[in-house]
Amino acid sequence: MTRIAQIAGDGIGPEVMAVARRVLDAAGVTDLQWTELDWSCERYAREGSMMPADGMDLLAEHEAVLLGAVGWPGVPDHISLWGLLIPIRRAFDQYVNLRPMRTFDGVPTPVRADLAEGVDIVVVRENTEGEYSTLGGRHGSGAAETALQTAIFTRAGIERIAHVAARHAAERGGTLTVATKSNGIIHSMPFWDEVVREVAQEYPIEVHFELIDALAAHLVMRPADYDVVLGSNLFGDILSDLVGGVCGSIGIAPSANIDPTRTHPSMFEPVHGSAPDIAGQGLANPVGMVWSAAMMLKHLGKEKETNRIMAAITTTLADPATRTPDVGGLADTETVADALVDHLRSTA
Ligand code: ATP
Ligand code: MG
What we know:
InterPro entries: ICDH/IPMDH (IPR050501), IsoCit/isopropylmalate_DH_CS (IPR019818), IsoPropMal-DH-like_dom (IPR024084). The chain is α/β, with parallel strands linked by helices.
């Protein structure tokens, strides 16, 4: 049995998690042993912390963490982020943030349909260093008050994420696009370019470096030209939301926080949050959660089940009767869940 820690969380988190569990069952995944944890803002309100003091030790006994969403109005973001998500990403050295996104037949996109057709991109984001560091501070006062924020790029840190991105590119279309800003950021970004270029040479891939500003424009204007996009912590963060937006809805976007060394559990979660505005109404799109669960299966080596779930997602999204309103459909969460399950059962 493979041990999985489930954190359904807040708001629509438990609603979409229930769908993911049904889908995994229907896909015939029977060898997972679940630990269901009630870690959430609700727990914080009740007990004063998002998770118990020995929470990280408990998670460490698992192969993977499947997370719904945490966050709730009235609980400051730094509590849900620093009380749960960030400690997990850091303590488990989940240095790869994978954000695949693609367009689906029938799902409306904000970019012209002919430009959106066939878009299939994976953003690989460095998840542990770079611009999001705690190094820096505020000095002086009045007009002289100054804030310094130091980005940290290490050779080891760049090398390991570059290997992951290059490997993905080699397995997919053979092209890697690297976001940079080495014309304006004169220390860290030239170093980033240099180390990524060195690593990429070890792979049978084409590598393009693009300035982040131009890349942002190109991803909107001709998204179908891109395949694997590598970004530093900040650039990857921004670009993955941009690509998600281009493809239609936050409700279908998945993500994975991975420790490729498998020393620690990796964590899989939809890109969306707890969506308090639609929680409890049966309106949540479960696809981002289900796709995240499929990514977890792939990480666990269950390629066949992963592909079957992806086929069920594609079929379900193609029909307005089996997709939720955020992607131009008429269905509630339950109807989408039933459609996914039916598809998996009928193709078993
Ligand atoms: P967080 O701060 O946790 O990242 P957020 O508050 O920025 O989250 P979400 O909770 O993701 O954002 O919600 C943003 C908007 O997208 C809301 O209007 C919400 O209803 C909508 N939304 C998010 N997830 C889904 C979903 N799965 N299905 C349908 N709509 C969704
Ligand atoms: Mg929020």
